[in-house]
Amino acid sequence: MSSKLTEKGEGTMLGNGVLGILAESTNKWERRVPLTPSHCARLLHSGKGNSGVARIVVQPSTKRIHHDALYEDVGCEISNNLSECGLILGIKQPQLEMILPDRAYAFFSHTHKAQKENMPLLDKILAENATLFDYELIANECGKRLLAFGKFAGRAGLIDFLRGLGQRYLNLGYSTPFLSLGASYMYPSLAAAKAAVISVGEEIATMGLPSGICPLIFVFTGSGN
């Protein structure tokens, strides 16, 4: 959704050449970033005339996968104050107090289906005369989403699903090998996560599963993401 798209002068909305990057606050495990340091370097050093970006202000974070120093190395500014930024980027929806008047925001807002828990965020954006570019609604001329879950999100989701399945079965009174899996963010690499899933598979192949939950059938659908 884009609630408004207007030019209001220096320091507001789009066009002032200052980008902001939010510190993620919705999920304790969120380490992703909307722009990596290399992305920021390309935007900053290609010149404002080419990219439209003169400055990038990054809110400090001790859990972000790319450390603050890496952003500083490519010319970004580290500051909690994003008030000079015309466009502010994030991954997930920010806290309500992070929404500034007359600014443009881009993130996954989880509001376009009127998700009840996030509607106060939409109300705040409208009240502050801000603009929201929701990643879920950015599409090409054919209506196909341009920003969607990729293969790594799919792999993380698979691990978290299997871990959750183990917790669900435990609540029903069944111990399964799925209980040995950690959440996806706990693994230091994709190889380590794969090894953990393979270990679960080998245990199931050797010991089987409780008869009360068999047969257990998985069906994978979708476009491959």
Helix content: 25-40%
Determine the strand fraction and express it as a percent band. 5-15%
Described by strand count, sense and barrel closure, the largest sheet is: 6 strands, parallel
Structural class: alpha/beta
Rg for CA atoms:
21 Å
Instruction: Give the integer mean of the pLDDT values.
Output: 87
What is the succession of H and E elements?
EHHEHEEEHEHH
The gross shape turns out to be elongated
Number of helices: 6
Number of strands: 6
- The N- to C-terminal Cα distance equals 23 Å
Strand order of the largest sheet: 3-2-1-4-5-6
Poorly predicted runs of 5 or more residues: 1-13
What does this structure look like?
The longest helix is centred in the C-terminal third of the chain and has 21 residues, at 151-171. It is elongated and about 65 Å long. The chain has 225 residues and is α/β, with parallel strands linked by helices. Residues 1-13 have low confidence and may be disordered. The chain has a six-stranded parallel sheet. It contains six helices and six strands; from the N terminus they run βααβαβββαβαα. The two termini are 23 Å apart. The chain is 30% helix and 11% strand.
